[in-house]
Amino acid sequence: MIDLRAWWTEIDAAAKRLEGRVLQTGLRHADDLSAKLGVPVFLKLENRQWTGSFKLRGATNATALLSEAERARGLVTASSGNHGRALAHAARALGARCTVFLSPQVPQYKRDALAALGAEVRIAGRSQDEAEDEARAASNAEGRVFVPPFDDRGVIAGQGTIGDEILARLPEAELVVVPLSGGGLAAGVAAALKQRRPGIRVIGVSMERGAAMHASLAAGHPVEIEELPTLADALAGGIGRSNRYTFEMVRALLDDAVLVSEEEIAEGIRAAALLGEVLEGGGAVGLAALIAGKLLLSGPTVALLSGGNIDPALHRKIIAPKAPA
Ligand SMILES: *Cc1c(COP(=O)(O)O)cnc(C)c1O
After folding, report:
1. Residue nearest (by alpha carbon) to ligand 1 atom 4
2. Tens-place pLDDT, residues 26-65
3. Cα 172 versus chain centre, distance
């Protein structure tokens, strides 16, 4: 059983803690999409969140929950992507040391971006999995706090504050569509929404290519699957064999989990670009599922746009007019 009331208490506390430390992002009405789909459609603009993704909420909440002594010893993680950026930003804002462990394969520009946010970058291991092992070993040996990207109460509660903001602006929302990878985002948002508005539907969306949570839900337990190249690179990776929170929460709280193809993701990126919103692939999967007609719509619908950190050259290529066949 998921104790929604207890989660709500943690999410509500997180919302107060995050005030002034993260952006309360806008909820934008999408006129053309609403006309096309026949229900009011709104976009929750976490692509405009500081550091370019919602992950700042979880990282900031988890960091703020630590004691001063823990913050002084420092934080570690092993993500070169949105979680790494978010944690580096959160740590600096809260005066904590932050070390990000990366494998030698991580490109120099990503190392530089983390260093520019004030993080210490350590190159370790031969793969990113080994870099994470090194990060966990260092956290044990040096008494530092490893901040996981999704399977952590403080992280989940931080992401849940998005649900709170959606209902504050749109209390009549009937469906919220959420990008789904490790499930910290979907778990937190669904917990907030379902505690406040029990009849609301929440649907998770992943890419067809390498969706570990989707495969785990189908199997009934966490499974590992092969990682494949995808436009939604922020959604790649496993959910952890010893998953503690997000698998059970996602299983209990989501009404459905659907998949989108690479072409559908590109279409989502293009539709957002027409509205002046820059999305990365992982940030576009919810919108993509709506546009592709994969969801049953009944009333006011929100697509959560989770991030905008895309390589500008790739973005240009995706939105360029197609040559006539
Ligand atoms: C991390 C991430 C997600 C997925 O979040 P989970 O909590 O792992 O499910 C979705 N979109 C973007 C842009 C992300 O960075």
Report:
1. 181
2. 999 999 999 999 999 999 999 999 999 999 999 999 999 9
3. 24
> What CATH number labels 4-54+152-319?
3.40.50.1100
Q: Which tokens hold the place of 156? A: 């989940």
CA of 319 from ligand 1 middle (Å) equals 22
Would residue 294 show up in a list of annotated catalytic residues for this protein?
no
So what's the pLDDT on residue 109?
A: 84
Residue ranges matching CATH 3.40.50.1100 in the chain: 4-54+152-319, 56-146
According to DSSP, the β-strands at 201-207 and 256-260 are parallel
322 pLDDT more than 80: no
3-state DSSP of the chain: CCCHHHHHHHHHHHHHHHECCECCCCEEECHHHHHHHCCCEEEEEHHHCHHHECHHHHHHHHHHCCCHHHHHHCEEECCCCHHHHHHHHHHHHCCCCEEEEECCCCCHHHHHHHHHCCCEEEECCCCHHHHHHHHHHHHHHHCCEECCCCCCHHHHHHHHHHHHHHHHHCCCCCEEEEECCCCHHHHHHHHHHHHHCCCCEEEEEEECCCCHHHHHHHHCCCCCCCCCCCCCHHHCCCCCCCCCCHHHHHHHHCCEEEEECHHHHHHHHHHHHHCCCCCCHHHHHHHHHHHCCCCCCCCCEEEEECECCCCHHHHHHHHCCCCCC
Q: Can you read off the two tokens belonging to residue 53?
A: 């993704």
Q: Does the C-beta of 145 come closer than 6 Å to ligand 1?
A: no
Q: Is the pLDDT of residue 184 over 80?
A: yes
What distance in Å separates the CA atoms of residue 218 and residue 84, rounded to the nearest whole number?
A: 29
8 Å CB contact between 271 and 33: yes
CATH number of 56-146: 3.40.50.1100
Told to judge if 306 belongs to the known catalytic residues of this protein, a careful annotator would answer yes
